[in-house]
């Protein structure tokens, strides 16, 4: 838990943005599951092959999920790299001051 507190303390704005996008990716993931369930429901009761609206919604949900997940992972990596660099620079400055 201490590590998480350090991460948020170092750059809170960047983490808020990354968490927001991760939330959007989570909503996209939940939407995908809902659309698949709805499509399976329609397929079991209706003999039509494809419901174009569901296919379009599925495509948008997949795009939101993929882009959100990708952005959140990249941003998380960048944030951690910057924080590690800053902490190393501070440690080096402290050792030089002694």
Main pleated-sheet profile: none
Given as residue ranges, the uncertain stretches (5+ residues, pLDDT < 50) are none
Portion in helices: over 70%
Sum up the overall morphology in one term. Answer: rod-shaped
Radius of gyration: 21 Å
Number of helices: 3
Q: Secondary-structure element order, as H and E? A: HHH
**What is the CA–CA distance across the termini?**
31 Å
Mean pLDDT: 79
Strand content: under 5%
Q: Can you tell me the number of structural domains? A: 1
β-strand number = 0
Q: What structural class is derived from the secondary structure elements?
A: mainly alpha
Keywords:
mainly alpha; 3 helices; 91% helix; 0% strand; rod-shaped
Structure description:
The chain has 98 residues and is mainly alpha-helical. The chain has one domain. Helices cover 91% and strands 0% of the residues. The protein is rod-shaped, with a radius of gyration of 21 Å. The mean pLDDT is 79.
């Amino acid at each position: 838990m201490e590590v998480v507190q350090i991460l948020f303390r170092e750059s809170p704005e960047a983490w808020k943005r990354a968490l927001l996008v991760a939330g959007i990716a989570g909503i996209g993931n939940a939407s995908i599951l809902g659309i698949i369930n709805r499509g399976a429901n329609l397929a079991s009761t209706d003999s039509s092959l494809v419901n174009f609206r569901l296919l379009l919604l599925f495509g948008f949900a997949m795009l939101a999920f993929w882009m959100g997940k990708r952005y959140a992972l990249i941003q998380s990596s960048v944030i951690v790299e910057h924080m590690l660099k800053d902490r190393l620079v501070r440690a080096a400055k402290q050792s030089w001051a002694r």
